[in-house]
Amino acid sequence: MKRILVTGGAGFIGSHLCKRLLDEGNEVISLDNYFTGQKRNIVSLMDNPYFEVVRHDVTSPYFVEVDQIYNLACPASPIHYQYNPIKTVKTSVMGAINMLGLAKRVRAKILQASTSEVYGDPQVHPQTEGYWGHVNPIGLRSCYDEGKRVSETLFMNYHHQNNVKIKIIRIFNTYGPNMHPHDGRVVSNFIMQALRGQDITIYGDGLQTRSFQYVDDLVEGMLKMMATGDDFIGPVNTGNPDEFTILELAEKVIDMTGSKSKIIYQPLPSDDPMQRKPDISLAKEKLNWEPKIPLEQGLVKTIDYFEKLIREDKDI
Ligand code: NAD
Ligand code: UDP
User: Fold this and answer.
1) In angstroms, what is the span from residue 112 Cα to ligand 1's centroid?
2) Rounded Cα distance, 79 and 183, in Å
3) Which among 206, 300, 308, 305 is positioned nearest to 258, based on CA atoms?
4) Which residues sit with their C-beta closer than 6 Å to ligand 2?
5) If the chain, 316 residues long, is cut into consecutive pieces of 10 residues, what is the mean pLDDT of each piece?
6) What's the whole-model pTM score?
7) Structural domains for the chain
């Protein structure tokens, strides 16, 4: 049994990760300030005596004896990370410093949830880990993109300067149950709109692409990355290489929900990446991992989740 700290443990991905780590027989501490996370996501875990819940902000130091740290605390939806951009930078940068300091002190292994956004609006397709990216340092998305890039820098520096055992994964668009219904990200938006018969809002012409990974596949990749030997630190892409246009996603969601919703077109937000698809050769080689759940299969589970949520609380 290991004692494991998950920052952002009440969030979408964090809640799935906590459950999986508990299921594998570990002791888990979820640390969260509930900015975008929800108690609802972890309430079913609270009966487990090996699960602890801490309300804390990663921008302040936190001390606990643990063997491993998964650092996920950071809003991930563009609407939420742009709501208070200064705080987003602080969460990424000060959060990384505080968690790396803790890892150094207690000699814990620490994994950083980085992002495909470090590639910005990429000019290389698909994106390999060797690509340095195309990021606007002063644009609307920069608080998130540059914050995450500095986090990667800090992880590498703590590793080389202080021998901290680090792992960096670059997560591509992930979806599934426990996403916040008003999260603003495309999968949750389209499903909520379709289920309520509201217009489906496509930003731009809908020809921009994304590659959607189901959350269970990601969590499997995270555990495999944490289990690699000390000589492999990443960064490594974790995503599903099946690429879709946003228009294709909208049509799929309408079809699968049997919705009468119409598609409407709204302006494209600035710096919105035109294309995104991971090259996962490195993950296949080093982690013996690749995603197994195709988009339609993952969408069925996600639609079921949101249908249940709406049934339980019509005002949601
Ligand atoms: P989320 O918003 O659902 O979860 C983030 C969690 O962090 C929330 O519970 C939130 O309350 C918490 N948090 C935010 N700021 C905090 C702070 N200062 N102190 C303590 N807790 C704080 O998002 P998610 O999709 O679960 O993303 C989790 C991580 O994975 C993030 O770091 C995100 O950047 C990364 N990521 C996610 C995706 C994706 O597609 N979901 C893609 C790339 C990277
Ligand atoms: N998007 C959209 N309608 C929405 C929400 C998002 O067309 O209601 C688009 C958005 O402009 C982007 C893509 O879908 O091109 C993915 O957006 P999301 O916010 O999910 O993630 P990210 O842009 O960070 O990949």
Assistant:
1) 11
2) 8
3) 300
4) 78, 173, 185-186, 189, 201-203, 208, 210, 246, 268-269, 272
5) 98 98 98 97 97 98 98 97 97 98 98 98 97 97 98 98 98 98 96 97 98 98 97 98 98 98 97 96 98 98 97 83
6) 0.98
7) 3-175+213-241+277-292 (3.40.50.720)
